[in-house]
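Continued from yesterday's entry.
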Amino acid sequence: MTDAPRWPGDAAPAPTSEDPAHWPTGRLLFTVARRIEREWNAHLAGWDLNHAGFPVLLHLLGGPRTQRELADLNGVTEQTMSRIVARLERSGYVTRDDDPRDRRRRAVTLADAGRAAAMEAGRYRPAEDLASRGLDDDQVTELRTLLVAMVRAGRETPQTPDGAVPPEG
């Protein structure tokens, strides 16, 4: 790894600048992530969903899972997942039943309404448009390559249940 700056030019980023070209990479990612989260929540509101519940429905398309499995897949605590699942259950999107693999646990199963909501809310084109507005096809391809690399690198980094990287030592 090199000590070269990770931004264009020789100067350090200027986090107080109004021009995003001068912001640190983390601030850029945070700003874009918040915009996409707001727009996704507005899109998902039509199905009484949000950015926390929608991925759960997508994971359940593959079959029932325990809350622990869902928490791990979504990078949240079991307590947080319990609240997410309770909201999805109130909306009629999931059911909780005894887990046939472990009587101490409950299996979360996708209801027909949840399957329909996941498929309709996640239609490819509107979803991609929300995440890639302002980019041409080549830029979207490049962005996807970089994001996949970042997601994979994050999986290799040990994290606490809330997603924070634990201190070394």
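--- second protein ---
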Amino acid sequence: MIEWADIIAVSPATFQHIQAIAMNSHTTVHNPYRSAAYIISAHKLTQLPADEGIEVAFAGRSNAGKSSAINALTEQNSLARTSKTPGRTQQIIIFNIDQQRRIADLPGYGYAKVPAQLRAHWKKVMQRYFETRKSLHGVVLVMDIRHPMRPFDQQMVDWCEYSQIPCHILLTKADKLKRGPAQSTLLKVRKSLPARATAQTFSASKKQGKEQLITRLNAWYQYEDNETDSQARTPYDKI
């Protein structure tokens, strides 16, 4: 019997090392979000970029881990900055992926210390955003897995469903729970969702669930399944 190690002229020990690397390697999904760059902080909808191309919004309660999720996705530790006073940053932050693809980081909601008048103002702004933003192709709704589906979260799911916008729930800080309780929470959340919505567990610190999130976003952003970073195209290249 001829050994492959003999054919390729390497020692058995070296061949075993190559085999081990091959067995432990895996194909990673295309991650175009590493190129995300800050563009603008909009206090009004009129300050947003032109309503064209594809925009995906990240939304969630203050302290749910939204900024950490964006930073983990883009592999940039300080792209989305956290406020020292949760809920005080009331603006829509736009990150460009390329000329026709954007991430919209929406203001955190549900923080009690924000003045009632300001909360009411941003509720109206967000409602108008969901109803009128034609380029909005999906919403990543970030929730702390230990406190999922609070009233404001349910309202956000309802907004997405009413506006016919796909919603993907990111149950963050999954590393804070053991696998059993985490999966149990995931199943409960999934059962409560409308057909258009999906959910997954996620941990920014452990990088758990990152590829699943990227796969979901790649579909929304209309990236080809077999694209590499150098082959990424805009939605308008086919026109």
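The first strand starts at residue 37 and ends at 42. The helical segments are 4-7, 12-24, 66-74, 116-132, 151-162, 179-192, 210-220. Will compare against the first tomorrow.
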